[in-house]
Amino acid sequence: MTVTENIIPDTPAVEEKSERAGFWSTLFSSRMTVVCLCVIGIFAAIAAFAPWFAPYDPLKQNFLAMSKGPSAAHWFGTDRYGRDILSRTIYGARPSLALGVMAPVLAGIVGTVVGMLAGYFGGWIDRIVSRLCDVLMAFPSLLIGIMISAALGPGFTNLIVAIAFAFLPRFVRVARASTMSITAEPYIDAAVASGQSWMRILWKQILPNISGPLVVVATLWVATAIRIEASLSFLGLGTQPPAASWGNLIRDGLTEMLVSPWSVITAGFAVTLCVLAFNIVGDAVRDVLDPESRD
Amino acid sequence: MSKLRRREFLMAGVAAAAIAGLPKMARAQATRSLRIGMSATNVNSLDPRRSVQNADNFVQRQIYDSLLDPPYGTFDLDYADVVTELAESWQVSPDSKTWTVKLKQGVQFQKDAGELTSEDVKFTYDTIMDKTTGSTQRVYITDLESVEAVDKYQVKFHLNKPNPNFHASGLISIIGSIVPKSVAGTMTMEQYARQPVGTGPYEVAGTVSGGGVTLKAFEKYHGKKPEIDTVEFRYMADPTARTLALLKGDLDIIEGARLPGWVGQLKQQMPNVVIDQTRPGSINTLYFNMSMKPFDDIRVRKALRYGIDRNTIITAFGGIAGPAWGINPPEFPGGFKETELPEELRYNYDPEKAKALLAEAGHGDGLKFEIIMTQREDYASIMLMVQDMWREIGVDMTIRTIDHTTYHAEKDKNVNAIVLQSSTFAPVSTQIPVTYYRSGAEVKSDGSGDQNYSHYGAIGGPGVDDLLDQALAEGDLAKRQEIVRQAELKILADMPAFTICTLSFVYARNPRLDLGFDVKAGYARYRLGGAKFTS
Amino acid sequence: MLLNRLVDSVITVILVVTLVFVAMRILPGDPAVAALGDSATAEQLASFRERMGLNVPLWHQYLDFLVNIVTLNFGTSMITGENISAMLLANLPYTVELTVAAMIIGMIIGVPIGVLSAVKRGSFPDYIARIIALAGFCIPDFFLGALILIVFGLKLDLFPVTGGGTDFPSRMQHLVLPAMTLGLVMAAFTSRLTRSALLEVLKRDYIRTARAKGVTERWVIYKHALRNALIPVVTGFGIYILTMLSGSIAIELIFARPGVGSVLINGINSRDYPMVQAGLLVFALFVVVVNIAMDLLYVLIDPRLRRAAR
C-alpha cells in the first residue's frame, strides 16, 4: 500500500460502504443521494436555461445601481459596474458544469486508450506508462492543474486540457488494470486465435467490459473538476472576464468586499453546494455500478 | 474523551489569546516609520535611467534629487515657477537650443560617494543617450545633441532643434535625477539598479520581505532634513490587500485602484481618508484602426463616438476621471475647453444620431467585431463600459482579454481594430499630437513602427503633418500652441481617435500624515521629504 | 523499494523540468517586452534577448536550463533582475510555516473529532461530525479564506489580514488567519481519515481480545486502537501536505502573504519565465521530497512493514 493509493478516489465518506448494517447511514445516504441528484438537476437546468432563469443580462451594466447591497430588484446586489450578482452567479454555472463534465470525459477517453494499450500489450509500453502514472499520481490534481495552465495560459480550452491532464493517470490505471484482467480470460485467447485484429479485440471485446469502472471513475472526478476550475479561475488562470465563473466572481468580489460581500458569498455557496452534490452522487454511483471498488 | 478535548480547546484558546495580545507590544516601538503600499509585485529597478515601473519611480523620487522640478504637487512648467533641487540657477538661450544649468555647490552623494559635480550630470545624460546601455529614457530626449561640462558646477545642454519645453522632457524628474559617475560608472545599469546612490533626502537601507524597499533619512542631505527617519515601500499588487492595510492603519499611503467606485467605497469605510490625486493624470484615448474596415468610414467612427456617454463613465469613476474635449486635455496649456469648440466638434452623447450614422454607412442591422484588451484594471473597466454602451447602438464588440504585456506587444503590431491607450505626458502641447497623429509615427505590422495606431496622416488627414512640423520648429511657446490648436481641430473633424476621459493617479492617505503640500497634478509620484505625522 | 522511489523522483523531476521548459517557450507574449516595458526600442529588446540567452537555439537553451538547475542557479528575474534562488529562499519559510501550522491545527481539531465520531458511531455527534467533515471537504479553501478575510478584515480587529510580518511576534500574528483557513480544511481530511482508520482497527482481533480480557473501553481506544489507527493517518498525511501546499497558493493571494506560491503567481502574471520555471520546479521538488519522506516514515512507524520490505 502506497501513500497515494490511500486517498484515491479522494471523495468523502469512503468508509460508509462497510457499514451497510447501520440503518441510520443507509437511510441517510439514500435520501441524501436523492436530494443531491435533485440539486444537480437544478444546477444543470439553471446552466442550460441560464437566460431564462437569470433576471438580468449578466454583462449588462447599470451605473445607476453600482455596488448595491441586496434589494427586491437585485436579490444579491450588484457589482461595481451595476451588474446583477444573481444573474452572474447563474451564468457562472455554465463554465463550471461544462468543464466539470468535459474534463473527466476527455481524461476518460485519452486515459482509456492509453490504459488499454498498456494493459493489452504489456512489456515496455506498460512499464513506461505505469511509471509515468506513478509519477503524476504523486501530484495533487490542483497542483498539476496550476502547473499546466501556468504554462498554457488562461482560456476555456486550455483549462479543460489542464484539468484533464491532471486526471489522466487515474483513468489510465483503471483502464490498464481492467484490461489486464480481461485479457487473461479465455475468450480473448479465442478471439486472438480466430485471427481478429488487436484493434477489433480492444474495441469489441475489452472496451464494453471495462466501461463500468471507467464511468464510475469519471463520475467521481466531476466534483474535483468543478473545484479545480473554481480555484484556477480564482487564481486568474481559468475563465476570463467579462464572462462570469464562480471562481472569478469570488476573485472580483474580494475587491468589492468593503461594500458588499454578496458576490463572494453567493458564488462560494454555489461552488460548495455543487461540489457536495456531485461528491455524494459520485459515491452512490460507485455503490451501484461497482460495489467492489470500495476498498 | 470530553476531558481531553476540553484541555485541548483550552490550550488552543490560551495560545490564540497570547497571539492576539501581541499587537500592543509590537506597536509600542519608539519612532514610527512611514509605510506606503505600491501597486506592483516587486522592485524592478532603482536606476532612474532605466526604469519602467511607476512604483519604482516613486521610490527613486525620494533617493534622487532632480535638476529641476515643477513646484511640488503641481505640473506647473512656467519658467518663473519651476523649482530647483540640484540646480542653483538655469537659463535658456533665445533660440531655445541651448540650456545652461548651474549646480549647487557642496551637494553630497549618499554612501560616501563624494560631491556632485558637472561630470556626474554629463555622465548621467551620456549614458541615457548611449544606445548600448539599454536606457529606457532615451526616447524622451531625442532632441538632445550633447551635454557639455563647462566647469565643475556648470553644464550646457545642446539641442539639435529648438525646444522651449526641454525642461519638461529632460530636466525634471525622473530624467533629471543625477547618478554618481564614481559608482554607476563602474557597473552596468542592472547592477546599479540594485544599489542606487543619489543625493536625495532618503537612502536605501534594505529590502522588505515579500517585495519592497526600506529607506532611511540621509544624514548629509543638502536640503532640509526629513522629519520621518524611515520610509517603507511595500509592493502589494492586490488592491484589496492595500485597502485593508490602510483601513487597519498598517499603511499610511496606498496607491489606489483605478476602478469605478473605488474611491467612494473607501470613503464609506474611512470617512476621514485623504485622497491625493493628480489632474489630468493619464489620458485614455481610443484609436480607430483606419486600415481596417469598417473603420475607414468616417460615419462609423463618428457613430461610435456619439454612442459613448462619456459623462456616465466619468461619473462611474467617482471623481477620479475628467473629460477631454480636444486632443490635449483641458488642463494642458492650450488645451481646448468645451465651449471653445464649435458645436459639431463637441460630439456629445447621442445614441439616435449614432444609429442613424451607422445605418447611413450600411450597418443599420448592427456591427460586429472583436478586439483584444489588456486585463489591467483601468483599461479593462473603461472598455467594459464602452462595450456595454455600444451594445445600445447595435454594435457588438467582443473583447478577448489578454495580459498587459501581450496587449502592448500586439497593439504595436497593427492587429487590433480599436486600440485603447493610456499615457501620461508633461503638459506640453506638442507631445500628444506628435506621438499619436503624425504619419511618421504610424504603427507597422512587424512592430517596427511607432504609436500612431489609427494611421492618421498616412490615411486621410492632409496637412496635419505639416502643421505639426511647423509647431515643432517654432521657438515661441504661444505661437506653438496656436498651431497645435489648428491641428487639433482638423483631427477632431476627421475623428481618427478620441479621448474617452482622463484618469487621475490616486493615492489614499491616512489623515495623520501631512505631506507638506497638496497634490493636484503631476506624474504618479511625489516627494516625501517634507512629510510628518500630525498626531 | 526506496531505490525505486528515488528513481521515480529523478524521473519526476526530469519530466516536470522538461514539461515546464517546453510549455514556457510556446507561451504567447514577448518576455523582452514584458521586462523592458512599452517604450523599449528594437535594439534594447535585442540586447535584452541576448543577455537573457533567449536568442540561441532551443536545444541550447534547454541544456543551459538543465545545467543551471543542477547547479541550483535559477538565474535572475527577467523583470526585477533579482537573484531567483535568493528570492525563493526568502519566501520559502513563509510557505513552510503556513503549511506546518495548518497541519498542526488540522491535527488538533481533526483527530479528536475523528475519534469521537468513530467511538460514538451512528450517534448524533457522529452525524454532525461527518456533515462538518463533508462540508469542510467540499468548501473550496479560497472561499473559506475569503470568508475569514471578510469577517476578520472588516468586522473583528483581532489579527492582521494582509502581509507576512517581519519579526517573530508579528509573523505569528500574520500566520493565524491563513493557517486557520488551511487548518480547517485539513481538519476535515484528518477527522475523516482518523474515523475510518479507527473503525477499521476496532474491528480487529486484538481489540476484541483486549475487550474480552475486561480492559476498560477507554483504555482499549487510547492504548491500542488509536495508536494503530494513527499509522494510516500519519502516512496519509503526505498527500494532504501536498494538498495544503497547492492550497497555500490561493491563500497567499487572499492574505497578500509572501511565499513560494505568490512568487509563482507573480511570475505568471508578469510573464517572468525564469521565475515561473523556478516556482514550478520548487513545487515539483516539494512533491518528491514529501513522498520520499512519507515512504521513510511509513517504514519507520510500522515495524512489520520494515520486515516485509525485503
Automatic annotation (TrEMBL), chain A:
One GO CC term, this protein: plasma membrane
Membrane found in the keyword field: yes
Keywords: Cell membrane, Membrane, Transmembrane, Transmembrane helix, Transport
Membrane topology, as annotated: Multi-pass membrane protein
Places the protein is found: Cell membrane
Gene Ontology biological process terms in this record: transmembrane transport
Annotated ranges, domain ABC transmembrane type-1: 93-282
Transmembrane segments: 32-54, 97-122, 142-168, 206-228, 262-281
Signal peptide: none
Annotated InterPro entries: BP-dependent_transpt_permease, MetI-like, MetI-like_sf, OppC_N
PANTHER family the UniProt entry points to: OLIGOPEPTIDE TRANSPORT SYSTEM PERMEASE PROTEIN APPC, PEPTIDE ABC TRANSPORTER PERMEASE PROTEIN
Family classification: Belongs to the binding-protein-dependent transport system permease family.
Official protein name in the record: Peptide/nickel transport system permease protein
UniProtKB/TrEMBL annotation, chain B:
InterPro entries xref list: Peptide/Ni-bd, SBP_5, SBP_5_dom, TAT_signal
Annotated compartments: Periplasm
Domain of life per record: Bacteria
Pfam family, one: SBP_bac_5
PROSITE patterns on file: TAT
A GO term, aspect molecular function: peptide transmembrane transporter activity
Annotated ranges, domain Solute-binding protein family: 82-438
Family classification: Belongs to the bacterial solute-binding protein 5 family.
PANTHER family: PERIPLASMIC BINDING COMPONENT OF ABC TRANSPORTER
Protein name: Peptide/nickel transport system substrate-binding protein
Biological source species: Phyllobacterium trifolii
TrEMBL record, chain C:
Membrane topology: Multi-pass membrane protein
GO biological process: transmembrane transport
Positions of the ABC transmembrane type-1 domain: 92-294
Name of the protein this chain belongs to: Peptide/nickel transport system permease protein
Record keywords: Cell membrane, Membrane, Transmembrane, Transmembrane helix, Transport
PROSITE patterns documented for this protein: ABC_TM1
Main location: membrane
Pfam hit, one: BPD_transp_1_N
UniProt record similarity statement: Belongs to the binding-protein-dependent transport system permease family.
Domain of life: Bacteria
Segments traversing the membrane: 7-27, 98-119, 131-154, 174-194, 229-255, 275-301
Subcellular location as annotated: Cell membrane
InterPro entries, per database record: BPD_transp_1_N (IPR045621), MetI-like (IPR000515), MetI-like_sf (IPR035906)
Organism expressing this protein natively: Phyllobacterium trifolii
GO cellular component assignments: plasma membrane
